[in-house]
Amino acid sequence: MKKVLAILLAVALIATLSISAVITASAGNDPTLVVSTETATKGATKDITISMVNNPGVASLKLSLTFPSDLTLNSVAYNAGLGGQSQAPAKLTSPVTLNWFNGGANTNGDMVYATLNFTVSNEATEGDKAIEISYKQDNVYNIDEEDVVFGITNGKITVVGCLHEHTTQVPAVPSTCKTKGHGAYTKCDDCGAIIEGSDAELDLADHTPGAATKENVVDATCAVAGSYTEVIKCTVCGETISSETKEIKATGNHTAGDWKSDSGAHWKECTVCKQVIGESESHDFEEKILEEATTEKEGKKANVCKVCGYVDEESIVTIPKLVSYDVEQTAGKTEENEAVYDADDAKAVAFTAKFAKDKLTAVKVNGQVVDPANYDVAADDQGNAVVTFKEDYLKTLGNGDYTVAITTDDGVAQTTLTVKNNAAAATTDTANGGSPVTGDNNIALLIALLLAVMAVSVGAGFVYRRRKEND
Ligand SMILES: [Zn+2]
Ligand SMILES: [Zn+2]
Ligand SMILES: [Zn+2]
Ligand SMILES: [Zn+2]
User: Fold this and answer.
1) Ligand 2 center from residue 185 Cα (angstroms)
2) CA 395 to chain centre
3) DSSP state of 427
4) Which CATH number fits domain 31-160: 3.20.20.380, 2.60.40.680, 3.40.190.10, 3.40.50.10420?
5) How far does the centroid of ligand 2 lie from the alpha carbon of residue 66, in Å?
6) CATH topology for the 324-439 domain
7) Which residues hold their Cβ within 5 A of ligand 1, which is an ion?
8) How confident is the model over 208-224, as a mean pLDDT?
9) Are 216 and 243 a contacting pair, CB within 8 Å?
10) Could you tell me the pLDDT band of residue 139, with boundaries at 50, 70 and 90?
11) pTM to 2 decimals?
12) 244-276 pLDDT, tens per residue?
């Protein structure tokens, strides 16, 4: 039982040592045989070295070399610095045996063991072509015939299509909104490959928005909203970045038209949009004469809205014809039954209307109501109304004919008053009398003057004859 345990322990110890040997072989300062690595194109010839690194001192080193058929081994040159003797390989096809030994002393120090000259086949595929060495422990020992253990780092020739020996640096080109740019990169002039960086297109840059402009403007009216398109374009490429329809609010500035009405109310509408402006209001009626009654025809009166003028048809009432009362001039000059005021004579003018004094309601000259301060009213012995115009008033009337109306509630006494020789007021409108009905005053004055001259001449002749007769 003890024996079995001892064997197991020995196996475990060996296993542990083996693992540690593998670990130390890969460490940086262990004895190692290193095969170099090269890159080559098809058809190229390259030297590959086998070197001793961290050499502990060795007197014999016999290796087996293998490589693929893409490589042709042209020659093997042992390093003369090794000392001792080397044996040229019997053949140069893989596997190849390399053999060196030194019977006198250890060879110490790191150095190249041998240089191998390879040519890459023109038909070689691209990729790594492994160049590997191995040895049997019996063939590697020192001058004391003790085993020397070297770790192995195998090499290779990497076959490439191009060595990229001629290159061009292409600087970065930034993107704009119109063109895609790229980063900086290095390109092989021989094969066109990108060695460094990337010529991949970058994304387009953002547009540069300009000021917003208005297009398709439809102006708003008082009631209807308008609209426009707000457009923002790129200042670099002119492309439309955004296009948005926006509203222009209705102005609300309505234009009021004439009054509109129905039987109950009045309102105004906008002449543009026909919308009712504000609120409709009830009529505010007052009685109004639509047509004045005259002595010839009936008149009309009705309820009429003070605001809009709406006439309430149902309220229309007929006003009876006016009674025509006789009138005569009872003071002042009378010529051919016409009433005359002669300024030269400077006498008051009075009219007697043939109705009771108390029925008098107003005195009008040319349709205008005369201020009662401008006339006196009295009754004659039959009780008829006698209207006497004051001279101060008459003097304000220019020469010409005037219609005088003395009214009652049911009628009128109407006549004509002629004003003459009133040069002072001839061309001026009077306060209450209005302008003359007719009258070419200058001609009238001329005729009057002529008649006066003739009368004086006739009178003078008559006096002269009477004196002669008396003599
Ligand atoms: Zn290239
Ligand atoms: Zn742009
Ligand atoms: Zn409107
Ligand atoms: Zn009204």
Assistant:
1) 26
2) 75
3) T
4) 2.60.40.680
5) 64
6) Immunoglobulin-like (2.60.40)
7) 162, 164, 188, 190-191
8) 94
9) no
10) very high
11) 0.41
12) 999 999 998 999 999 999 999 999 999 998 889
Domain residue limits, the chain: 31-160, 213-248, 254-321, 324-439
**CA 309–ligand 4 middle distance (angstroms):** 6
- One-letter identity of residue 148: V
d(CA 101, CA 105): 10
State the DSSP code for 207: P
Mean predicted confidence (pLDDT) in 370-377: 94
Which helix or strand (DSSP H or E) is residue 100 part of?
Answer: strand 96-101
Residue in the structure block whose two tokens are 């006494």: 413
Q: What is the pLDDT of residue 339?
A: 77
Tell me the CA distances in angstroms from 371 to 365, 379, 391, one per residue in order: 10, 19, 14
Distance 237 CA to ligand 2 centre (A): 4
| Neighbouring residues of 454: CB distance < 8 A, sequence distance ≥ 6 | none
Query: Relative to the alpha carbon of 39, which ligand is closest?
Result: 1
Ligand lying nearest the CA atom of residue 261: 4
Asked if 340 and 417 touch (Cβ cutoff 8 Å), the reply is yes
How high is the pLDDT of residue 334?
A: 56
Ligand 4 centre and the CA of 257: distance in Å?
14
Same fold, 31-160 and 324-439: yes
Count CB neighbours of 408 within 10 A. 19
